[in-house]
Amino acid sequence: MEVALFITCVNDTLYPQTGRATVELLERLGCTVRFPLEQTCCGQIHANAGYGHQALPLVRRFVKAFGQYEAIVCPSGSCAAMVHEQYERLAREAGDEALLAQVRELAPRVHELSLFLTDVLGVEDVGAYYPHRVTYHPTCHSLRLERVGDAPLRLLRAVRGIDLVELPEATTCCGFGGTFAVKNAETSAAMLADKLACVQRTGAEVCTALDNSCLLHIGGGLSRIQAGTRSVHLVEILAS
Fold it and tell me: Can you spell out the DSSP letters for 68-115?
């Protein structure tokens, strides 16, 4: 199967290893991976901050960059959710009927990575080996908008050598929320402190998730308190 990689801004600028791991994993599973060079930001940061009109050129660019591909894979629940949950609304509010039709046709072909593996490829055991104690944080967008359910956990349970431990209060937000962490820093820090305490209770060496934006927040907090736990994107475990 030919797939296009929608890498996202955070991964492109801060976590390139996630993109490399995604390509490695998909190729190992028999996919041919394309990388449209025209892709840029999906517009999520603009839309979530209330600047939907400024996100529209990015929506149009996304449609142009990815329109020819039958499957688009994204290692980010929040950016996949942007396409699925906000593109149609933005096009409708702009009164752009042509863009609305394009978005409606394209959105079903955009897949969050874990759902692509389990629901499209029909794979749970990807042949990974990862001999570490790991806990999984279900990020808000992946859980509530992408509705990934237990797909990430099924993938992790099939990894050889892994010691997968349940995260207490797993579905509670870590407090990142993009600009929320900046505009509401004290509240965000308090939410993060609760999440870090839960991670520490597991004794895990690694905290994993589907979104590096949330792992940036959690990992930074773990580093500051010298917890001895590192943050690693799910795909890096699956590609190991």
Answer: T-S-EEES-HHHHHIIIIIHHHHHHHHT-HHHHHHHHHHGGGEEEHHH
Type and span of the H or E element at 56: helix 52-66
Measured between alpha carbons, how far is 211 from 204 in angstroms, rounded to an integer?
A: 18
CA angle 48, 105, 123 (to 5 degrees): 85
Residue type, 57: P
Start-end of CATH 3.40.50 domains in the chain: 133-238
- pTM of this prediction? 0.94
Residue 76: left if φ>0, alpha if ψ -120 to 50, beta else—which one? beta
Percentage of the chain exceeding pLDDT 90 = 93
CATH architecture assigned to 133-238: 3-Layer(aba) Sandwich (3.40)
Mean pLDDT across 15-30: 97
- DSSP-assigned letters across all residues of 155-198: HHHTSBT-EEEPPTTTTS--S-TTTHHHHTHHHHHHHHHHHHHH
Q: pLDDT tens digit string along 189-198?
A: 999 999 999 9
**CA–CA dist 153, 151 (Å, integer):** 5
Condensed to tens digits (0 to 9), the pLDDT of residues 194-225 reads 999 999 999 999 999 999 999 999 999 999 99
